[in-house]
Amino acid sequence: MRSEAAEAAHIARSLDRSAALKRELGRDSGAIIAIVDLCETALRHGHKLLFCGNGGSAADSQHLATELLIRLRGSVARNSWPAIALTLDPAVLTAAGNDFGFEEVFARPLSGLGSAGDVLFGITTSGRSPSVIRALEVARTMQISTVGLLGGDGGAAAALCDRMIVVPDDETMRIQECHITLGHIILELLEDRLTGSGG
């Protein structure tokens, strides 16, 4: 059994690593601002944001879409904004996986729900998720802008993203912590711009 001191040291190391990665990402604020620019343009012109990812990244997709549809901050009064998490419908996901293969679980519904001018967020900690890569490929054929929240070296997904942020780490947990923080920052800035709030 590990001692309490050893577990306390583990907690401190994990928090320090998570914080260090986030500080490193903050040095490239231009990448974040470029993503906000894409999203602002889409929403101002009546388009929508779509999200996809597997596992924890599926949960992040649903989390971020909900922040847009319902609200991010209770202190900001605004309308609901159009967002779709392609991870939400088990009937759609299982039908697509059964009929077309798991690689198509996001691409198939995207082809029906997406429109030129929309923005698709592909969230993958490895940058190698076949279902996310396929969705990014289909988005490009539909003139949907592509944003990657990626990890590691970006993987094959990096080449398919118009804008991206790559968390330079190989540990899934730490990458996911950065992805949801980045998602919140993007939505905060977007909300400030579209409502004229914030500083």
UniProtKB/TrEMBL annotation:
Residues 39-199 form the SIS domain. GO terms for molecular function: carbohydrate derivative binding. PROSITE patterns: SIS. SUPFAM superfamilies: SIS domain (SSF53697). GO terms for biological process: carbohydrate derivative metabolic process. This is SIS domain-containing protein. It comes from Acidiphilium acidophilum (Thiobacillus acidophilus).
